[in-house]
Amino acid sequence: MQVVPYSARQFYLVLPPPTHPLRSAAFARKALPPPPVTLSGITRVVGLFGYPVEHSFSPLMHNRAFAEAGLDYVYVAFPVPPERVAAAVAALPALGLAGVNVTIPHKEAVIPHLDGLSRTAELIGAVNTVEVVDGARLIGHNTDAPGFAAALRRGGVDLAGQRVLLLGAGGAARAVAFQAALDGCAEIVLCDVAAARATALAAEVAGHFAPCRTCAIPLTAEALRPALAAATLLINATPVGMHAGDVYPIDLAWLHDGLFVFDLVYNPLQTPLLAAARERGLGASNGLAMLALQGAESFAIWTGRPAPGESMLATLEGHFGAR
Ligand code: NAP
Description:
- By secondary structure, the protein is an alpha/beta fold.
- It has two domains: 2-142 and 293-308, Rossmann fold (3-Layer(aba) Sandwich); 145-288, 3-Layer(aba) Sandwich (Rossmann fold), CATH 3.40.50.720.
- 37% of the residues lie in helices and 20% in strands.
- The protein is built from eleven helices and 14 strands.
- The strands form three sheets. A six-stranded mixed beta sheet has the order 4-3-5-7-8-6, with helices on both faces.
- Helix 9 links the parallel strand 13 (260-263) and strand 14 (283-285).
- The two termini are 33 Å apart.
- The relative contact order is 0.12.
- NADP nicotinamide-adenine-dinucleotide phosphate is lined by residues 144, 167-173, 192-194, 197, 219, 237-240, 242, 249, 264-266, 287, 290-291, 294.
């Protein structure tokens, strides 16, 4: 083992030697130097509960952000199998963690083990961030929703008054639909291959936000074409576009002037939908900013400090090779 003096505060970071397979496998893939990590007897720990978690880039993004903000925090990925969720959540106050992110498959399963939910998490019915309040109470938040709104604002788009066509009614679409209604969209039209899922989500949103006209439509050209023509904001919250040859439920030739296109997909960064939108001269964003800014919201919840959102996005851009 090699001991590297880390800072003037004389904390030490113990790393495997540069040739160690663990170290080279972890970092060769990213073509980036490892994030600086400060560990001490008072380092606050946050992390990720999911199963699996090995693929996660949240440790990279958050540890860089903590270092940049000068905060003595560390972010660790914890693989928590489903049968251990209750025990893992119960251990948070005992271990003194400031909080955790929660990912697949635990976003709904953690809820019964928490003491309270933010309004957004309650509406969406899913938690992606747990906050340990006063070392004792566990509050569940959903930062996908405000992360989505922040990403749109970053693209110059305000949700208020928008007429939205939302493709998909799964987990991410739930966060998008409730946030869009919370932020004053005029209309949300939903569709999904699982038609009953779209109908149920439309009814739920309509039940909470009557002024926002919300409905579900079938996945047919007859229904989708006029819905898109009337929309000011098209949001893709399906996985369509992640793989070569994917077929969208809309015809990309139907994109029209004045439409903004937001694709939650971030891998690849440029989907066929985004390419078609940009070719037409439309405003368009991929899902990378949403990913970074939901992380920034979690960072702020745990630390009480504003997150360096732009540099968190830059970390992801480096990771995904956007530069
Ligand atoms: P999900 O829960 O599986 O929901 C996807 C929904 O889309 C499902 O209801 C699915 O139906 C439906 N669908 C699949 N193909 C479709 C098609 N051709 N037309 C209409 N509907 C279709 O997944 P998710 O977690 O919501 O994620 C959706 C996408 O958003 C993924 O690409 C994910 O990577 C991305 N995402 C991005 C962020 C971000 O921060 N940028 C955050 C979350 C998710 P079936 O279940 O019947 O297939």
